[in-house]
From TrEMBL:
Domain annotation Disease resistance R13L4/SHOC-2-like LRR: ranges: 71-157
Protein's organism: Hibiscus trionum
Protein name (database record): Leucine-rich repeat-containing N-terminal plant-type domain-containing protein
Alphabetical keyword list: Leucine-rich repeat, Repeat, Signal
Signal sequence coordinates: 1-22
Keyword Ligase belongs to the record: no
Length: 213
């Protein structure tokens, strides 16, 4: 006996759901690809005509075909990051270290609620550390060292209790080094080579909130 048409249609719609996610995340990753110069063709497999980005090199997905890792460290890439990265809702690891990426860190990275590791070290990233990173309540590793970042360390990061590793050394940050919350156990050498960064100071948030630019 043939299945009712409505049941067949329902099953068909469910089958399309991973593809819809794949298209959305694939579009976001392809936007990133277009913003990057890739002389070694490490992104050659990032083909927008493929429904699911889980087939692309340097991309890892979970069992639901949602992107969980982007591994592009030390890949000789240049260009800039794009706000669309914030659409990768299940992303846990964003590895873009040791490239020549310029521009700023998009505030939309604060939408990556499952992010565990943000590794952007050894690039040429400028601008400030977005306050929105304080919304990353699963973040364990934040490595932004060896860039050209300016401004203060956002006070919002004090509320990220999961943080175990923070390295912002060798930038041009200013203000004072936070010492409360997860920062209580961060080694001071992870803040060095920021000539305008002061501290640590133990006078509370009032002193930490020093204006700088």
């Amino acid at each position: 006996m043939a299945a009712p048409i409505w049941l067949w249609a329902f099953g068909f719609s469910l089958a399309l759901i991973p593809s819809a996610f794949g298209n959305l995340e694939g579009d976001a990753l392809y936007t990133l690809r277009k913003s990057l110069a890739d002389p070694d063709n490490v992104l050659q497999s990032w083909d927008p005509n493929l429904v699911n980005p889980c087939t692309w090199f340097h991309v890892t997905c979970n069992q639901d075909s949602r992107v969980t890792r982007v591994d592009l460290g030390n890949s000789n890439l240049s260009g800039h990051l794009v706000p669309e990265i914030g659409k990768l809702e299940h992303l846990q690891y964003l590895e873009l270290y040791k490239n020549n990426i310029q521009g700023t860190i998009p505030a939309e990275l604060g939408n990556l609620k499952k992010l565990i590791s943000l590794d952007l070290y050894n690039n040429n990233i400028s601008g400030t550390i977005p306050r929105s990173l304080g919304k990353l309540k699963s973040l364990v590793f934040l490595r932004l060292n060896d860039n050209k970042l300016t401004g203060p360390i956002p006070r919002e990061l004090i509320g990220v209790s999961t943080l175990k590793v923070v390295d912002v050394s060798n930038n041009d940050l200013c203000g004072t080094i936070p010492t409360s919350g997860p920062f209580e156990h961060i080694p001071l050498n992870n803040f060095e080579k920021n000539p305008r960064l002061e501290g640590p100071e133990l006078l509370g948030l009032a002193s930490y909130d020093t204006n700088c630019s």
